[in-house]
Amino acid sequence: MRRTLFLIPHEFAGWPIFGIGWALMFLVIAVLAFIGWESRRGGLGPSAAARQISGFALMAAVILVVVVPRTELVNTLGDPVGVAVRGYGMFLMLAAVASVGLAAWRAERAGLGADSILQLAPWTFIGGLLGARVFYVTQYFQDFMRPTWGETLMSMAALNQGGLVVYGGFIGGFIASLIALKRHQTPIWRIGDVIIPCVFVGLLFGRLGCLMNGCCYGGECEAGPLAVRFPAGSQVHAEQLLSGDLLGIEGQPVVSEEETRPGQSRMVVDSVRPNSLASQAGVEAGQTLTIALDPSYRGEVPLNRPAEEALPGVIVLKGDEVLKRFSPQDLPSIAEPVWGTQIISSVFAAIMFVVLLVVERFLHRRPKQSDDTANQQAFTGGRRPGVLMLIGFIAYGVLRIVLEWIRVDEKGQFGTSLSISQWVSLIVIVASLVTLFIRWRGVDSASGERPGDGDSRIVGGSSVAGDAAATGS
Predict the structure, then answer these.
(1) What is the predicted pLDDT for the residue at 333?
(2) Which tens digits make up the pLDDT trace of 59-80?
(3) Which pTM value belongs to this model?
(4) Which of 41, 49, 51, 84 has the fewest CB atoms within 10 Å of its CB?
């Protein structure tokens, strides 16, 4: 885990980098240089060049002056110290670049043109980002509530703090993509087959971003190749402090009508591990304890560093009596092993990428010309655009159902033990299976295509169907 890769300082040589500062100055210089270059080479001319770049320059200026400064981290006194470049954000960018670049190459080789992807990418990315955030905020709405509506909305919009759900991204990106594809009259089934392997490339990098961020982890497990351990300051470490695991306490949480404050937990002690921190504090079986994270050590963080780097201590209370106060240095520096669901997802994504390419070759291979050609086409899948995409949907749905059994961050819904992601997975799997049956039978109500229609040449692993006008979904 490395949540922050590095920190862009708030100021340099006494002048802020963002806001009215260095970044804006370099933007102005770049715009003037572009206009001067176009004028000197006799291209657009100063006026035309200024009009061409004005939209980009205005958008960039708003981002540098208004948006970025709001993401700056502050020290313990509330003063800005800089903008964090997050590991999560870096891998999210790698996911976008790798998946879009590969999809553009595949679309070009499949005869759809790279432009079909480049036109689609902004819609998919924005729709996916919004969908992923809305899904997360909906699941954990109470965590975003602040004293005012303005602060609540800012908290919901703070993407630099993480908090995206893959399924929300799939749904939002899929809806936005359908709108864009309809607008540009792009064949939806064929473009879906081109894109689906690239989605798993994006998932590979995206889940590595989750690993860097310390989120989307599984439940506790034995140490092994599929287990990971997170450092102090991570969400896992804090949860294991509050559960008593890192203190040497085994117990049952106390269920009461009173709402437990954030950063606190109440439990009845079942047992105490010998020579543990809890045994040193005099904790005994049968006691009802309150364990609270202690933020009073924030002052130990240097003023040139973000306050979020402060590690909490722990206070163990029996009623109103403080049994023990542990400083951050007293506590374990690393959490107990948990299932590395991020790594499992990334490995599965890499495997599915390869599997889909193999299946694609199988589906679109040219059958031998013989009296039994029709039967061979029915077996191999022939020219059935959309089948590959649906197989990808089903595969991810199965993976997510399995992963949710070892993840502990979502509760059961609708009176069952199934999480919301598992319910969505079931819907996706059933819908995809029904649609796959229809496609496999060669029925496309929107375009009327049949298995034998069009040309089945293999171009870069994708079929170039003759009926490029098939745009139904």
Answers:
(1) 93
(2) 889 989 988 888 899 999 999 9
(3) 0.76
(4) 41
For residue 464, which of 360, 342, 338, 315 has the smallest C-alpha distance? 360
SS3 4: strand
Strand order in the sheet with 4-9: 4-9, 80-86, 73-74
For residues 247 and 271, what is the distance between their CA atoms, to the nearest angstrom? Answer: 11
**Least confidently predicted of 31-45, 80-94, 291-305, 375-389:** 375-389
Q: In angstroms, how far is the first alpha carbon of the chain from the final one? A: 40
Most confident of 239-253, 376-390, 400-414: 239-253
Structure tokens at 24: 């804006």
Mean pLDDT value across residues 31-50: 78
Instruction: Give the closest residue to 336 by CA, choosing from 473, 459, 221.
Output: 221
Position with higher pLDDT, 466 vs 181: 181
Residue 229 amino acid letter: R
389 CB-near residues (< 8 Å, 6+ apart): 189, 192, 193, 195, 196
Q: Which residue is it, tokens 């375009």?
A: 447
Distance CA 159, CA 202 (A): 18
SS3 80: strand
Distance CA 283, CA 268 (A): 11
Structure tokens at 12: 């340099």
DSSP per residue, 14-71: TEESSSSSHHHHHHHHHHHHHHHHHHHTTSS-HHHHHHHHHHHHHHHHHIIIIIHHHT
Question: How many CA within 13 A on the CB side of residue 419?
Answer: 18
Residue 116's Cβ-side half-sphere holds a number of Cα atoms within 13 Å equal to: 24
- Tell me what the mean pLDDT of segment 103-130 comes to: 86
